[in-house]
Amino acid sequence: MGDERRRELGQFLRDRRGNLVRAELGLPPIGRNRTLGLRREEIAAFAAVSVTWYTWLEQGRDINASRQVLESIARVLSLTTAETSYLLAMGGYTPVPASEVTRIEQAPDHLQRLLDTFDFPAFAVAPDWGIAGWNRAYEGLYARIADVDPAERNLLWLIFTDPHLRQMLPDWEETSRHFVAEFRAEAGARLGSAAHTTLLRRLGEASAQFAKLWADRGVERFASRQRIFLHPLAGELVFEQHRLVPSDAPELHLVMYAPVADTPTRERMRTLMAGMPPGA
User: Fold this and answer.
1) What pLDDT, in 10s, does the model give residues 91-127?
2) Which of 22, 79, 182, 237 could join 27 in a cystine, given CB atoms 3.0 to 4.6 angstroms apart?
């Protein structure tokens, strides 16, 4: 386990330990008023590990934690499924070794052809959340995508640094929070790599909002959900966001925005793609 992953694991454990509600675990307050947070010795007792060993784990020391022990600690901390997966990834229990994760500049031809068959916005996301391919409908939705410098054609980078995209998202605060939590959940194999560290540093320097959300250490698995865009030409567009993983290219994810029924989204997209203003 690399130094950065050890440090992240320790900080993640400290954060989650500090947010536990003592009463929910049958524990009295600490002093008169402290109802949140468990002591290290309490976590160690519940997880059946030594206090010294657990302390070293939180301190990011170079020790090896078994999968069973980490899963036990996850149960004590009441971690979600996504948070447990993230904890295991920090401990080195991840199906994709960091050395096998590489930057993907362009989606393979067969996946690009698949994207092109959709009449709604769709794009391919690489492991570092770089946008590796998109279809014409996505370019209609986000007209700047083709002109963005390839080095900055990253979904997370654009959501925090492109004011045009931010203006299109009435729920930007919620969307950005979801994105950061999902990115962290998927980042275990890459944490500590030069490319990942550089991306996080650049994002933190470019956006105070990103820096705060990253420091909050939220972790979420991707979930299909509604997405609303306020397009400068087409007006309000309401989609349901889905993500598929191609079996022959599992390192890429295909993200699709399916128009929501009983909204004018599909017709507005058709008008937009025809190069006409809405209602013309």
Assistant:
1) 888 654 444 445 688 999 999 999 999 999 999 999 8
2) 22
